[in-house]
Amino acid sequence: MDFLPDIRWDMIWNYREMFIRGIFVTLALTFVGYIGGIVLGLLVGIGKISKKKWIFYPTKFYVDFFRGTPLLVQILLIHYAVIPTIFGHSLGFFVTGSIALILNSAAYNAEIIRAGIESIEKGQMEAARSLGMPPNTAMKIVILPQAMRRMIPPLGNELIALLKDTSLVSVLAATDLLYAAKIVAGAYLRFWEPYITIAIIYLFLTFIFGKLITYVEKRFSNSYVPKKRKALFASGGQALGGGSN
Q1: CA distances from 125 to 27, 42, 67, 112, 113 (A)
Q2: Whether pLDDT at 236 is above 70
Q3: CA atoms within 13 A on the CB side of 71
Q4: Domain locations in the chain as residue ranges
């Protein structure tokens, strides 16, 4: 630990604007990738439980491909091959990174959503159908709301994993946190300060996200009772107790 007195935090301060910009880029990539991954993952997840082969097999191949290949390879493939082939030129790191993160996250979310839907008893769907609901309506009103409670913890873990995976977009010269650390390390030829700084920032962000996920998980749990309702229950109980006396 002899290096601690020699740490130069002034070099981090001199590049503070780059680190702040990196935080915003990292968060933007995370939110775009996650929201897009949820929407696409829902479609793919429902497709994976479809009995129609022309829907099931393409979605299965999609999930197998994006879960079976490294995200870094996917980013490079999309940036240097797919997008130039379709558009004729690069669309920038943010578009490429967002597309790669959405496609990759959707594959994992699809499996989470599929497992969540299949965890609901088949009698729920049969009961909804017996009431005259079409399959799509029964899925939307009966199955998905119940399944969402079970999906929240793994979907929350996927959010935290996606936050850390955004660092891979730095291979495209994305101005994220890792890019800022590389610039500072190259400028001063010192590595402890920039990399420990972004490690602390990532740790802080994952801590905040973890607290948010815990709140959402608790809020949607079966045992959750709002504070106002607790107060009403308490006052009702006291009233009943006083009346009995």
Answers
A1: 38, 18, 30, 19, 16
A2: no
A3: 24
A4: 13-244
CB 32 within 8 A of CB 102: yes
pLDDT in tens, 133-162: 887 788 888 888 888 888 888 999 999 999
Phi-psi region of 189 (alpha: psi -120 to 50; beta: other; left: phi over 0): left
Alpha helices, DSSP H, located in 49-143? 53-68, 71-77, 83-87, 93-118, 122-130, 135-138
pLDDT, average across residues 54-62: 93
For 217, the token pair is 């998980």
Query: Do residues 46 and 117 make contact, with C-beta atoms less than 8 angstroms apart?
Result: yes
- Token pair, residue 227, equals 């504070």
Distances (CA, A) of 212 to 152, 162, 219, 222, 223: 11, 15, 10, 18, 18
| DSSP per-residue letters across 24-66 | HHHHHHHHHHHHHHHHHHHHHHHHHT-S-HHHHHHHHHHHHHH
What fold is seen in the domain 13-244? MetI-like fold (1.10.3720)
| pLDDT value at residue 245 | 47
Residue count of the chain: 245
Burial class (CB in 10 A: 0-12, 13-18, 19+), 148: middle
CA angle 123, 129, 132 (to 5 degrees): 150
- Calpha distance 77→65 (Å, rounded): 13
User: For residues 160 and 209, is the Cβ–Cβ distance under 8 A?
Assistant: yes
Closest CA to 92 of 174, 181, 6: 174
